[in-house]
Design a protein that fits this description.
The chain is mainly beta. It has one domain (2-76). Helices cover 6% and strands 41% of the residues. The chain has one helix at 19-23; strands at residues 2-5, 13-16, 29-35, 44-47, 51-52, 63-68, 71-76. It has a five-stranded antiparallel beta sheet with strand order 4-3-2-1-5. β3 and β4 (44-47) form a beta hairpin.
Length: 81
C-alpha cells in the first residue's frame, strides 16, 4: 500500500511494508520505503501522523485503548502505552 507524506500535494510516495503496523492502534510508526528517484530506498520507520492516503484521508491513528466505564475508547498518545 502506498501513502504520501503530509508535506504538500507533490509529496513522494511511501510504500508501507507491513500493513499490520498501519492498522495496529498500538503502533505509532510503520516500516516503509520512500519512492523517490530511480534507486530503491532502504526501509525506515515513518510516524503514522505524518502519512496520509493519496486521496488526502489521514492514516489510522496511533493511540492507547483504555477501558472507561463500559466502553473502549482510543486515546491519542505520542509514545507507547
Amino acid at each position: 500500500m502506498f501513502l504520501t507524506i503530509q508535506l504538500d500535494d507533490d509529496s513522494p510516495l511511501v510504500e508501507v511494508l507491513d500493513l499490520t503496523q498501519l492498522f495496529d492502534p498500538f503502533e505509532a510508526r510503520v516500516l516503509g520505503r520512500l519512492h523517490a528517484g530511480e534507486e530503491l530506498q532502504d526501509p525506515q520507520p515513518w510516524p503514522k501522523d505524518e502519512l496520509r492516503f493519496p486521496s488526502g484521508e489521514a492514516s489510522p491513528p496511533a493511540g492507547c485503548i483504555r477501558r472507561g466505564g463500559s466502553r473502549l475508547r482510543i486515546r491519542r498518545s505520542a509514545g507507547r502505552c
